[in-house]
């Protein structure tokens, strides 16, 4: 049977993600990978989770092993209400302002379903988080990209593009502005308070929704927490996506949508036909964990660990990269990623062949362009390799940059 | 902000499922519900699962608490290969013929994504399993419905409709035939071997894919297991959907797709943007469970329990329903459901108001019509209420039928 004939337009268009293909190489022995964006498994509170898992299965089996509601565990929602109050000082929420998803990825996909038609426009950042790109692309809608600077999205360009759309009568086609405000994936930068306020002003002016994706916000190494757009503008304007993947464990697959009850209800309806409900077991494990332990206290060692690894990487950059003319990198204030931009003319995808030789891996910036165009940048994660491997990896990468740069006459 | 303006066509069209709305009433004290299709929690092997959960979190934390691959746990896939060999005598499979989903519901939704465009046709059964309907409807494609008889889909009508489509040059628009062969939800019937063979012949003649959904096949009360279409026709023609929800525990949220490697790969790619991966924890729990316990032996008490409850319901039907002229019901050979059809003129949705009065609940057949049209039938599940409640519930339902029938001049 010729399966190809049977596929839908979407089915035919599906391709394996570039990251996935590239990371296959990273499992070669003696290789050093800065590619993955996964947490260090030693940060998972395995003893606590093992105890809780066994306990909830024994005692709450008729809930945790059964089908649950599409919106998710009400006890976890209650914990979220408490967390938002305690950590962010957001007091006006109740359980109906939350619903749980299979990681943030599902929330992004549901957002695509709820908001985007083929002729819709989503305003996104450039570089563009790959997971959001693959979710939104399933709706075949259009993107308008706004470049990211050291303090987040270039708001002047955002303003200009919105004005332009308005002049053309197209601003009604814009369904939302998608933004990762803290420790951006892949750009590593944080959106400043001033820019948050300007984005909100523009969203109000043109009556746009903001989709705020914040998986890393609690992993801050230094400086003051900047209030979320969700807090600044309120639920009338902002839907906030959170996840337990970076602060507890990705294997639980729990994301959370916080928003106006009407919108949350739409997410629930979209999830109903998508996968009926998420696992009550993993949600109840998370709920009991939050009930018994102080999350902020629990993640303090994780933050310390990632900060020290980030520092090691920055020191190695200083040592090995400083003499490469025109190189630039982000010193992130939190999260998992830094973003290195090589001098003009470099193509980190092409350079990947050289990196494979030296057994050092990163994600080429091309993976984060909405139109798959060449990029001189690369995403590097510091959270998984041990300190000495970080130094050794940066050293190898320096050689890669030099060899590739010379071969292209760029250095 | 007027959210309604921001929603997509799909977003606007999303409505809460009828079942969900109706089952809200079932939580009233002293009510008896035959509505839900959920397993009895006492059948869940909670002690075994609690032990395994704690053990895999302690010992395999770097796998079970981490992100996993989109295709799912390779150890669970290995267990599936063994199961298919041991239970069904299907020997030509390997791990790449399987992928895991968040319950069957996600597999149905991914099938919709991969195969259905707006102008595609899906051939489905009438009554139509509600979960499949809500998944496929998200692609806005067309349905052609084939009525179900006591031995499954009416194959003569299927043949006629396919011929008709072929004459109109539309048969290429047909992407698959969706069929629940065993202990149909909601119809309770099983597709005969003869009909399975005829469906395959027609699929071959018109070069159609078959999507075989088999959540209940292992829950057989009596008679011989009938080979699956997947076994009869092979992976070239059939994609088989399975789930652990009815044979282990729905709270784990594990469904399985079995098929040709190329098609399985497409499901994986569609899942990547949909939710990245399912929980490695719940999958590894299932894998270890299958490794250590004999599934068939483990589900024997469950089958016994459901059979005895089914027998109680059938006996109660004989006692209370026999004198209602024109009533018909299915005596299922397995699974969770029976399907009761009242005499012409009855509308079980309208009758629901009378059932609410008497505190007895069922799912009106209307919920399973593709176009939401009135139906004289209702789905009744026997697996959750205790024996005495089954008898009392059927007795109440008799009163409901009489009162409603008299009020409409039907009796």
Give the arrangement of secondary structure elements.
The structure is a homodimer of 411-residue chains.
Chain A: H1 9-13, H2 18-23, E1 32-33, H3 46-59, H4 61-64, H5 74-88, E2 98-101, H6 103-115, E3 121-126, H7 130-137, E4 142-149, E5 152-153, H8 155-167, E6 174-179, H9 193-205, E7 209-213, H10 229-233, E8 238-243, E9 255-258, H11 261-275, H12 280-292, H13 295-321, E10 328-329, E11 337-341, H14 348-358, E12 360-361, E13 363-364, E14 377-381, H15 387-407
Parallel strand pairs in A: 1-12, 3-4, 3-6, 6-7, 7-8
Antiparallel strand pairs in A: 2-9, 4-5, 8-9, 10-11, 11-14, 13-14
Helix pairs in contact in A: 3-12, 5-12, 6-7, 6-11, 8-9, 13-15, 14-15
């Amino acid at each position: 049977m010729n399966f190809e004939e049977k596929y839908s337009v979407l089915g035919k268009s599906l391709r394996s993600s570039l990251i996935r293909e590239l990371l296959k190489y990273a499992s070669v022995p003696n290789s050093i990978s800065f590619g993955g964006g996964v947490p260090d498994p030693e940060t998972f509170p395995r003893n606590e989770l093992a105890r809780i898992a066994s306990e909830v299965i024994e005692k709450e089996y008729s809930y945790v092993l059964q089908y649950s509601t599409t919106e998710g565990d009400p006890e976890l929602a209650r914990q979220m209400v408490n967390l938002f109050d305690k950590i962010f000082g957001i007091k006006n929420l109740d359980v109906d302002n939350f619903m749980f998803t299979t990681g943030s990825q599902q929330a992004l996909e549901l957002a695509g379903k709820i908001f985007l038609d083929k002729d819709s426009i989503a305003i996104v950042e450039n570089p563009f988080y790959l997971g959001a790109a693959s979710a939104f692309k399933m709706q075949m809608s259009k993107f308008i990209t706004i470049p990211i600077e050291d303090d987040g999205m270039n708001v002047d360009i955002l303003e200009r593009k919105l004005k332009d759309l308005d002049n053309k009568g197209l601003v009604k086609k814009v369904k939302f502005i998608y933004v990762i405000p803290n420790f951006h994936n892949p750009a590593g930068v944080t959106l400043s308070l001033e820019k948050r306020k300007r984005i909100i002003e523009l969203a109000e002016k043109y009556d746009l929704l903001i989709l705020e994706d914040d998986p890393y916000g609690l992993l801050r190494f230094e400086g003051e927490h900047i209030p979320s757009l969700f807090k600044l503008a309120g639920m009338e304007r902002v839907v906030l996506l959170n996840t337990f993947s970076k602060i507890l464990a990705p294997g639980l697959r729990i994301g959370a949508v916080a928003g106006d009850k009407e919108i949350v209800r739409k997410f629930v309806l979209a999830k109903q036909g998508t996968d009926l409900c998420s696992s009550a077991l993993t949600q109840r494990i998370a709920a009991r964990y939050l009930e018994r332990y102080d999350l902020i206290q629990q993640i303090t060692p994780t933050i310390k660990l990632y900060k020290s690894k980030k520092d090691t990487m920055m020191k190695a950059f200083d040592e090995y990269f400083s003499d490469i003319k025109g190189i630039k990198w982000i010193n992130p204030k939190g999260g998992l990623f830094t973003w290195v931009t090589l001098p003009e003319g470099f193509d980190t995808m092409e350079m990947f062949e050289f990196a494979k030789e030296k057994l050092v891996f990163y994600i080429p910036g091309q993976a984060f362009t909405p139109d798959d165009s060449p990029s001189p940048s690369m995403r590097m994660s510091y959270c998984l390799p041990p300190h000495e491997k970080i130094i050794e990896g940066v050293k190898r990468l320096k050689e890669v940059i030099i060899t590739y740069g010379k071969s292209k006459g760029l250095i």
